[in-house]
Specification:
Elements (H helix, E strand, L loop, with lengths): L1 H6 E4 L10 H10 L4 E4 L8 H9 L4 E6 L23 H21 L3 E4 L11 H12 L10 H39 L2 E5 L13 H7 L6 E6 H9 L5 H8 L3 E6 L19 H5 L7 E4 L15
Parallel strand pairs: 1-2, 1-8, 2-3, 3-4, 4-5, 5-6, 6-7, 7-8
Helix pairs in contact: 2-3, 4-6, 5-6
């Protein structure tokens, strides 16, 4: 257990919003016993000087950085999907390029070699199929853990996925092109782009197509897969994937994990072991070279509620 804890990073998503000084933020995390942290997508510019000071002093090691980090000057809240690699807007695409490069440079500066990436989404002129499905779930008041086997839900889910699959045919080529531009940036800096699975149905790639998507991308030593346990469990509870089967399919490209649990109501970023995820199954896929990051909700601000000693 001590070996696992020594490997475990704590994501700044748990506490960055309530800090104004990056050094004090890291002192709090180190004070909990963590030797490594992940700099998540809520790092404002004002936190950067303190973070750099803490890293330079050897107070902490940075295992991974989440795109975009630091945030653009004008953004004061976590915004990982602020600019998307799936966009049709040329200005947004230039900004995705700009801030992705900035993130890679910052990762090098803090000594991290893994960059967690979101891959964009499909777009709809009228109400999205996912929003429509969410409204039905809320009105039906069905627990997340009871959705599987619910015929009314499954019929609506399949109608939503039909629209999403159709829209993905135009989004996916743009995503591939974006990553093909980004791979040389990663190669130049000797870092790895780690593409995270997402909880949203409309966020790309579609999980069943993830392995084939990665095969399209060149330089596999500089681009891989990042597994978020909570996101996969949300999809598992909706019958969109089988958690074990998905990990099995992605195992050869796996670079790291975001570890958090999901409640029976479908609330993620909970303390591992308190919800519906089979972490013994997850452990079967963990290898020594993988990065392990505890990614907890900032709502768990109390030490005990966050599972800390």
């Amino acid at each position: 257990m001590s070996d696992v804890f020594d490997r475990l990073s704590l994501s700044t998503c748990w506490c960055s919003a309530r800090h104004t000084d990056g050094y004090e933020m890291i002192e709090e995390m180190v004070g909990l016993g963590f030797k490594q942290i992940e700099l998540s997508h809520g790092i404002r510019i004002s936190l950067v000087p303190g973070i750099l000071q803490a890293v330079e002093e050897g107070l902490v090691e940075v295992s991974s950085v989440h795109n975009f980090c630091p945030l653009p000057n004008s953004v004061q809240h976590a915004a990982p999907n602020l600019y998307e690699p799936s966009t049709v807007d040329k200005r947004e695409m230039r900004l995705w390029d700009q801030y992705t490069k900035q993130t890679l440079d910052f990762a090098v500066r803090v000594g991290a070699n893994r960059i967690v990436m979101h891959s964009g989404s499909t777009w709809y002129f009228f109400e999205s199929p996912e929003q429509k499905l969410e409204k039905w779930i809320e009105a039906a008041d069905v627990k997340a853990c009871d959705l599987l086997g619910n015929e009314a839900f499954e019929a609506r889910r399949e109608r939503a996925m039909k629209r999403i699959r159709k829209a993905s045919k135009s989004s996916m080529p743009r995503i591939v092109q974006s990553y093909e531009r980004a791979i040389p940036w990663a190669k130049e800096r000797d870092v790895k782009l780690c593409l995270e699975n997402r909880e949203g149905m409309e966020e790309m790639p579609i999980d069943a197509e993830y392995a084939d998507f990665l095969k399209e991308l060149t330089e596999p030593e500089h681009i891989g897969y990042w597994h978020d346990t909570g996101h996969a469990q949300i999809k598992h509870q909706r019958g969109l994937l089988d958690h074990r089967e998905h990990l099995t399919a992605m195992a050869d490209r796996l670079t790291g994990f975001h570890l958090h649990d999901v409640s029976d109501r479908g609330l993620d970023h909970q303390v591992p072991g308190t919800g519906t995820i089979d972490f013994k199954m997850i452990a079967e896929f963990v290898r020594p070279e993988h990065t392990l990051v505890l990614e907890l909700s900032p709502r768990l601000s109390n030490r005990r509620s966050a599972g800390f000693p």
